[in-house]
Amino acid sequence: MERIGLIDIGSNTIRLVIFEFDKKTGLNELLNIKTPARLSQYLTKDLAMNNEGIEVLTKTLSSFKTVADKFEVTELHPIATAAIRQSTNRDKIIE
């Protein structure tokens, strides 16, 4: 059975959903957790995310990676929404 994790990085929350795919039963949700991050509050006037916001994001992603490892996730896919996509320093955030 294959396990896939999706991380939805939103402006207010970051969510981890872990699915297991089985040929007989299809896609089954194993875990769905979210944490408030309020990333939009870390955007400066020129729409750059400040270092504190990047740290909040990094710590959250690190903890989600730990959870994904415990669930033996084989694929982990982060999806960034507006708070990151529209940031003027998105390349720095992605690093």
Write up this protein.
With 95 residues, this protein is α+β, with helices and mostly antiparallel strands. It has one domain: Nucleotidyltransferase, domain 5 (2-Layer Sandwich), CATH 3.30.420. It contains three helices and four strands. The chain has a four-stranded mixed β-sheet with strand order 3-2-1-4. The mean pLDDT is 94. InterPro entries: ATPase_NBD (IPR043129), GppA/Ppx_hydrolase (IPR050273), Ppx_GppA_N (IPR003695). Belongs to the GppA/Ppx family. This is Exopolyphosphatase.
List the helices and strands and how they pair.
Layout: E1 2-9, E2 13-22, E3 26-36, H1 51-70, E4 75-80, H2 82-85, H3 90-94
Question: What is the domain total for the residues?
Answer: 1
Query: Biggest β-sheet, characterized?
Result: 4 strands, mixed
Alpha-carbon distance between the two ends = 31 Å
Q: DSSP helix count?
A: 3
Radius of gyration: 15 Å
Q: Beta-strand level of the residues, as a percent range?
A: 35-45%
What gross morphology would you assign?
elongated
CATH class: Alpha Beta
What is the succession of H and E elements? EEEHEHH
Q: What's the architecture, going by CATH?
A: 2-Layer Sandwich
Pfam family, one: Ppx-GppA
Organism: Staphylococcus gallinarum
Protein name: Exopolyphosphatase
Family: Belongs to the GppA/Ppx family.
